[in-house]
Amino acid sequence: KKKLNNFMKVGVFLNYIGLGANIMHLSYCHHIAKIYGPITLITLADNLDQALEDDPLISEVKKFQKNKNITDIPNISYSLKKLKLDKIYIFYPSARLYIAARLAGIKKVFCYPLLKKKDLHLVMAAKTFTCKHLNLEDCATETNFYVNKEKLNNIKKNFDENKYNIVIGAGSSGPDTRWGEENFIELLNELN
């Protein structure tokens, strides 16, 4: 699809602490950016800005603090207002975020259905939300990364091309998504 408006500032709010959950939503962010141009990505994750620093579809990454209760609405609203967004897509069923976005004066606020937190399937909820609000029949769920070619060339210098190199990013923010050290050791041994 063509970009609708080069002057519209669009934000995406990913209300997740873990880097993995944020990256899992990146393909949907890209769908939005392909229509509106590079987006402002709002996150709770500490290092997402570093992971996306070469992404041409992300104009900026803003880290917000975790919002815990209704008293956080004024602070969230104030932070959103400073971003001067025309439109925001909130990838989470949060009345707090919805109200804060409205109070911030954002004209178009799209949010997950507010009463559907229980058993939220991250991939299917994000895909359904994206397709619905972008008027798409289907959308890709796989994430693509943009990495500067110079960085890739520098990385290649550290690896021996005559050997099989294994790199594992084994971090996780939640106890239900941790795989465990022993499993990674067993995987590395099998790959070797």
Description:
The chain is of the alpha/beta class and 192 residues long. The chain contains 8 helices and 5 strands. It has helices at 19-24, 26-36, 48-51, 73-83, 95-103, 122-134, 149-157, 181-191, and strands spanning 10-14, 39-43, 58-63, 87-90, 108-111. It has a 5-stranded parallel beta sheet. The longest helix is centred in the middle third of the chain and has 13 residues, at 122-134. The radius of gyration is 18 Å and the shape is globular. The termini are far apart. The mean pLDDT is 88.
Summarize the structure.
By secondary structure, the chain is an alpha/beta fold. The protein contains eight helices and five strands. Helix 4 packs across helix 5 (95-103).
Mean pLDDT: 88
Gyration radius over CA: 18 Å
User: Overall 3D geometry?
Assistant: globular
What's the helix-strand series?
A: EHHEHEHEHEHHH
Count of alpha/pi helices: 8
Distance between the termini: 44 Å
Largest pleated sheet: 5 strands, parallel
Strand content: 5-15%
Widest sheet: strand ordering = 3-2-1-4-5
Catalogue the unreliable spans: none
Question: Percentage of helical residues?
Answer: 25-40%
Structural class: alpha/beta
Q: How many strand elements?
A: 5
